[in-house]
Design goal:
The protein is α/β, with parallel strands linked by helices and about 280 residues long. It has helices spanning about 5-15, 30-45, 65, 80-90, 100-110, 110-120, 165-170, 185-195, 220-230, 235-240, 245, 265-275; strands at about 50-55, 70-75, 95-100, 125-130, 175-180, 200-205, 235, 250-260. The structure holds thiamine diphosphate and iron/sulfur cluster.
């Protein structure tokens, strides 16, 4: 199916416009752009709406599930992947997307993330990384860059920050990619691949939170934040060619892992079939 879908068609086909609008996102927030790429990816793959489940945690990012006309669950903070795992196991034909903020996925839900990756459950984890806890007022998250000013670290964040890609790679995710909301077409391409792949896919979408992060740091306006994404992001291929000293301050984007291994649910049901095919004890 073509992904030439107009804004008007998106509104009528994919959004619950009569229930949940106007939306809660600040002007300049990147979360809506991520949602747009997700909707267009699903549309261009021709996945029926009834076969899609968006499972979100709590946060500004978590609110996105409320707006879309798929099967949706707005779950508890940090537990989107537990719900998503149960849904995928009970009906493997569904496309299950766990939509989480960086606080949701890497802090309170960090343990679930590494074990979902280790297990390689067939879920797409979409992590909206805005470097901060947006909804609750700008506390530091594990993705807040070291040295940044936040509500809880007014003199600068002392902890090192997690690199989501390295974490997902190390834990064994099947497909790992990073994009930004400035590079929308590239992000959409990544999203399409992630939805098509078996096993556990992790897509980190870098999205600006001007309200809680940018204003306390060097990015006074939303435009400053988008300029920052434009100047910082570089394809992983180009990044790998750079000498070590030139990598400082650059953020590689693109696909980092693409293993194509079967998901946990596939292996589980294959094992079950194997058991069922065995002759009953005492039988001939
Ligand atoms: C168990 C639990 N702990 C804490 C909270 C409070 N809480 C709600 S949203 C949130 C942080 C959201 O940050 P993030 O996940 O990064 O998403 P964002 O709002 O930035 O999109 C927190 C701590 C909660 N709702 N439930
Ligand atoms: S607080 Fe930040 S993450 Fe939340 S809606 Fe506003 S800009 Fe977006």
């Amino acid at each position: 199916m073509s992904n030439n879908i107009t804004g008007n068609e998106i509104i009528h086909q994919y959004l619950r416009h009569n229930k949940k609008f106007p939306h809660v996102l600040c002007a300049g927030c990147g979360h809506g752009i991520v949602l747009g790429t997700l909707i267009r990816s699903i549309h261009s793959l021709g996945i029926p709406k009834d076969d899609v489940v968006v499972v979100a945690g709590i946060g500004c990012s978590g609110r996105l599930a409320v707006y879309v006309d798929f099967n949706t669950v707005h779950t508890t903070h940090g537990r989107a992947l537990s719900f998503a795992t149960g849904i995928k196991m009970s009906n493997p034909k569904l496309h299950v997307i766990a939509l989480m903020g960086d606080g949701d996925a890497l802090s309170i839900g960090g343990n679930h993330l590494i074990h979902a990756a280790r297990r390689n459950i067939g879920v797409t984890a979409l992590i909206l990384n805005n470097s901060i806890y947006g909804m609750t007022g700008g506390q530091s998250s594990p993705a807040t860059p070291e040295g940044s000013t936040t509500m809880t670290n007014p003199y600068g964040q002392l902890d090192h920050s997690f690199d989501t890609v390295e974490l997902a790679k190390g834990a064994g995710a099947n497909y790992v990619a990073r994009g930004t909301v400035f590079h929308v077409n590239r992000l959409e391409k990544i999203m399409i691949e992630a939805l098509e792949r078996p096993g556990f896919s992790v897509v980190e979408a870098i999205t600006p939170c001007h309200t809680q992060y940018g204003r306390k740091n060097k990015y006074k306006t939303p435009v400053d934040m988008y300029k920052w994404l434009k100047s910082t992001a570089i394809t992983v291929e180009r990044y790998n060619e750079l000498p070590e000293e030139k990598r400082e301050g650059r953020m590689p984007i693109g696909v980092f892992v693409d293993r194509g291994q079967p998901g946990f649910e596939e292996r589980y049901y294959a094992m079950q079939e194997g058991f069922l095919a065995r002759p009953a004890k005492g039988g001939k």
